[in-house]
Amino acid sequence: MFISIGHGLAEIALLIVFALGMSKVLQAQWITAVVGTVGGLVLLLMGIDMMSSVLRGKIGQITLSDQGEQVFAGKISTTSFKRALGAGIVVSVANPTWIIWWLTIGVMYVTQAMKYGWLGLGFFYTGHILADFAWYVFIAFIVATGKRFLTPATYNWIMAGCGLLMVLLALFFLVQGIQAVL
C-alpha cells in the first residue's frame, strides 16, 4: 500500500507539471519521435532479455515460502514507511512504460480533464489512482495467495508471456516513433 502511495505521489506531481503547461511542449512531434523510438528500443531490449532468460533457464525464481508472512507480523516503522514510499516514487519514475504511457496516453487524458479546470483534473486523478490501487490490491492478493498455484513452470510461462507482450508494445512504440520522424 505504501509503495502505491509513492506511485500516486509521483503521478500527482507529473499531473501538476502537465496542467501548468508542459503538456503543450510534450505534444511536439519530435518529442513523440524521440520517446517512441528510445522507449520502444528500451522495451524491446527488456522484452528480448526476459524471453531469452526464460529460454536459457536463467530467469530468477520467486520464493513462495511462508517466511515472508512473518515480515508483516511486526509494527510498521517510520523508516519502513519512508522506504516503501520512496520505492514507489523511484520505481514509477524509472519505469520506461510509465514514462511512455504518461507522455502519450496520459497527456491526452490530462488535456481532456483540464477542459473542466482543476476540478476536472482532480476527478481524473482520483479515478485514475483508485484504479491503480484496485489493481495493486488485486496483485498483492494474487501474490499472497498464489503460492498454492504458482509453480516454477507457470512462473516461467508468465515471464515469457510478459516478455512477448513487452516486445509487442515495443514494436508499437517504435512504429509510432518512426511515423513521427517521417
Automatic annotation (TrEMBL):
Keyword annotations of the record: Cell membrane, Membrane, Transmembrane, Transmembrane helix
Cellular compartments annotated: Cell membrane
Protein name (record): Lysine exporter protein (LYSE/YGGA) (Part 2)
Main localization, broad class: membrane
Any one GO BP annotation for this protein: amino acid transport
Positions of transmembrane segments: 5-22, 28-48, 84-103, 123-145, 157-178
The keyword Transmembrane belongs to this UniProt entry's keyword annotation: yes
Mode of membrane association: Multi-pass membrane protein
Pfam families named in the record: LysE
Source species: Syntrophaceticus schinkii
PANTHER family: LYSINE EXPORTER PROTEIN (LYSE/YGGA), TRANSPORTER, LYSE FAMILY
One Gene Ontology term, aspect cellular component: plasma membrane
